[in-house]
Amino acid sequence: MIPSGYALGADQPQWGHAWDRNLVSPERGLPTTFNPTNGLNLAWSAELGTETYSSPIVAGGRVYIGTNNEHPRDPHRAGDRGVLLCLDERDGHLLWQHAAPKRELDPYYDWPKTGLSSPVTVEGHHVYLVNNRGEVVCLDARGMANGNDGPFRDEGTYLQPRNPDGTQSASALGPLDADMLWVYDLTREAGIWSHDGAHASILIDGDFLYLNTSTGVDNTHRVIRTPDAPSLVVLNKRTGRLVAREREGIAPNVFHCTWSSPALGNVGGHNTLVFAAGNGFLYGFEPLSRQPADGEVATLRKRWQVEFDGDHPAGDIHAFLSNRREGPSNVYGMPVLQEGRIFVAGGGDWFWGKNQSWLKCFSMHSPTGDPAPVAAWSTAIGRHTMATPALSGGRAYVTDSQYALHCIDIKTGAVLWRQDLGGEMWASALVADGKVYVGTRRGGFWVFRDAPTPEVLGHVEVGTPINSTVTAANHTLFITTMNRIYAVRAR
């Protein structure tokens, strides 16, 4: 069953092709190379900021990409901000932008000049986003072109940074400003403590938005300031009201932050919300079946939980900070669901944790009859990983931060091949049109054949780091570097 709200077709309205989060696209006719200098297979390109970590989303003739504000598009919205650009899919020109001011008080809430890291999720004319301020916002895809729709109408004040005395004054709205329909502040209203910057890909099921909260440690990296904060919440997509949350006591044991987004699919015969929490455990929750009454915040019902790496330390996990030999695991990417199995890449935290990571397959077929999934296999993939695996043709493609792209048999966990790409990777691989696309932080863009033996089909040096996953939509590849987005189409 495909949840209501997921748009089939050539658009790519969310990160991951479907609700199972698999990074595989049905697009065809995609190129194996392009040239930013002479324009080979280049439909258009557009300038971004100076740091870009978000993956592009394409829907309704628009391309959405998060970046920073070091190349401001509007002099009235200058300064350090997290910026969502809405570009015209035909030629890349700017339609509007959501230029949110940075969080105040502590840079660890919203790290300077990192911009906006979350990809949007689009349904019809509604654009759902977790911005750099840790706010869930619903934007009008048409911007201000059809007027300032409500219920939220105070964009003029929202877009102004606070004065030194804490006051805030309104500004006039312009044609490039986004139209905010509603805002839910996870910090003020749900009690989270964001760290470095929010990263979440919102999943839509019916009237509900499921998302991780990006709650984490404070600036000491050893203290959880809000131990009652939820790691996973559910909002009503029409109103932005909080309708449910997890209450499993996850927050006190978050090692760094909660950056993994949930997946939804059939696991063990049940439609299950699968969530990789910041405490190193995987959880299976029952999706909401009804709309809670006004004022009610329901508790997500847990079906099971399982330790990710089987070696979770007891006691204070923050005592393992900067320990590169042992400690808890963390998951940055998303779990991927296929045929009742769960595929997750994770391991020691990239910044502070142990030098071990794995791709793991969890199955519900426990030899002991345990209702929780068990690890069917586990394959070591390098020191650290931030990747979401891409599953295609019985193979899993996953990157690590030790320069390697791995191709792994999803039945056995055997490594079919491993390719050194000459640069560390924060991006995940995308499979489309019988090809595997991936970029490195050294600026290499690689194309492989989707096959059990390695075959390089293309390699382009773009000159600046690639931090985000490639998107395929409407016969086009959308590739972002730190400072540009390229629309690449075979001619």
Chain-wise SSE layout:
Elements: E1 24-25, E2 42-47, E3 57-59, E4 62-68, E5 81-88, E6 94-101, E7 121-123, E8 126-130, E9 135-140, H1 155-158, E10 180-185, H2 186-190, E11 203-205, E12 208-212, E13 232-236, E14 242-245, E15 263-267, E16 270-276, E17 281-285, E18 298-299, E19 302-307, E20 336-338, E21 341-347, E22 357-363, E23 374-382, E24 390-392, E25 395-399, E26 404-409, E27 415-420, E28 430-432, E29 435-439, E30 444-449, E31 456-461, E32 471-473, E33 476-480, E34 484-488
Parallel strand pairs: 1-28, 14-18
Antiparallel strand pairs: 2-34, 3-4, 4-5, 5-6, 7-8, 8-9, 9-10, 11-12, 12-13, 13-14, 15-16, 16-17, 17-19, 20-21, 21-22, 22-23, 24-25, 25-26, 26-27, 28-29, 29-30, 30-31, 32-33, 33-34
Number of strands: 34
Walk across the major sheet and give the strand order: 1-28-29-30-31
Query: How many alpha or pi helices?
Result: 2
Radius of gyration: 21 Å
Query: What is the CATH first-level class name?
Result: Mainly Beta
Oligomer: single chain
Runs in which pLDDT lies below 50 for 5 or more consecutive residues are: 1-9
Shape by Cα distribution: globular
Mean pLDDT: 94
Please give the largest β-sheet.
5 strands, mixed
Structural class: mainly beta
Number of separate domains:
1
> Terminal Cα separation, in Å?
36 Å
User: What level of helicity do the residues show?
Assistant: under 10%
Strand content: 35-45%
